[in-house]
Amino acid sequence: MDISLEYTKAGIPVVTENIKGTISAGFLVAVGTGSRDESKEIGGISHLLEHVVFRGTKNRTSLQISKEMEGAGGEMNAFTSKEMTAFYGITLKDTSNIAKELVADICVNPLISENDTELEKKIVLQEISMWENDPESYIHKLFAETLWNGHELSQNEAGEVDIVSALTNKDLRRYFEERYKHPNIAVIACGSVNSEETKKWAEDNFDDIGNAKKITRQQPVRTGSSYRHFQRKGDHTYTGFGFHAYDALHKDKSALKLLTAILGAGMSSRLFQKVREEKALVYSIYGMVDQNTDAGSMTFYMSSTEDNVMNAISTTANVLKEIRDEGLKKDELNMARNLIKGATVRKMESTDSRLYRLTKTFMLTGKAEPFTNDLKALDRVTENDVMRVADDIISSKKLNIAVYGKRTKELSKMTIDQIDV
């Protein structure tokens, strides 16, 4: 692995990771704007624009883009998150010029026509509908609204139906011209790539597109505990149970990941064993760490029948309280460490996963580091580190719960003060 960070003449960062033996190459343009950077009047615009640019450019129709990319043995795609939007192409190394050419074209020359915008809005609205009808995913949105309580981080990437429906191609064009330029962009390449060639490509295509105002953000303030119930039809109930945690640069972020894994990663985790296997209270239960530039969270999600939800919540609370008050069991830390390292190594065997990881790391931390640094950071974590994090994060005063299900008598009467962690 060979990672470099250079800058074009205009100051655009260019991160390349050359992976020896790889016969694929990926090129990505990341823009430091996402759902948290949108005003409420244009919520979902980053995601909609991500879709619309693929509809056509000054040089190509959408069909031509697809034919050229697939003819090069490649894939072209994009993603939008809370703090970034990214566009990328991955091809065979022998056809990598096609990937570079097409990525540059959609990022610099998108048409963003009225017709394309209206057509793509129909697709995005169907995507929102599909997402809202997948409660296993939708609970993540509802928990974010509960946890961030009105802060911009509570805004989901897809946006709301009424706001997205009202967006026009003029809104998208204005947003594009204001933000999709230096200093908000970065270029990332991964696989069979050359740093000097990638830098030249970036200079030739992006140095002259002009400047944008740097995006500024307001850091969220950690609030106290909260409970919100969101009503849905159906007998199944979905719950998010979690806490404010650490940002992507925090010194204890690796310890946080290990604590979360011990509690909720895999079938041997404490929560899976206690809540699902021993008591059969849930169908699924798992933990997640979400990290942003200035904030983060540790969350556990579970799905259960309405009859079991209260018992599942109280059992989850007991499991978290137990680890904070009594500490780790023998070999528990090493098992979690190996679990995360194994999953990381397996993911890093693909160019697209490596490209995504490098993009996310650089955009959140400003650092261009190999994934092996993540593994080394995990190795340095001690039991004392994990317990310090548990003591800091797990607290009734910091607990947030979102429930998506029928408004039963028990759920209607429940208050956050009842749940003791």
Beta-strand share of residues: 15-25%
What string gives the helices and strands in order? EEEHHEEHHHHHEHEEHHEEHHHHHEH
Largest sheet: 6 strands, mixed
Average pLDDT over all residues: 96
**What class would the helix/strand composition place it in?**
alpha+beta
Order of strands, main sheet, comes to 1-2-6-3-5-4
Radius of gyration: 23 Å
Number of strands: 11
As a percent range, the share of helical residues equals 40-55%
Low-confidence stretches: none
Helix count from the secondary structure assignment: 16
Distance between the termini: 44 Å
- Could you say which overall geometry the principal axes of the C-alpha atoms support? globular
Throw out a few tags for this protein:
single chain; about 425 residues; alpha+beta; six-stranded mixed β-sheet; five-stranded mixed β-sheet; 11 strands
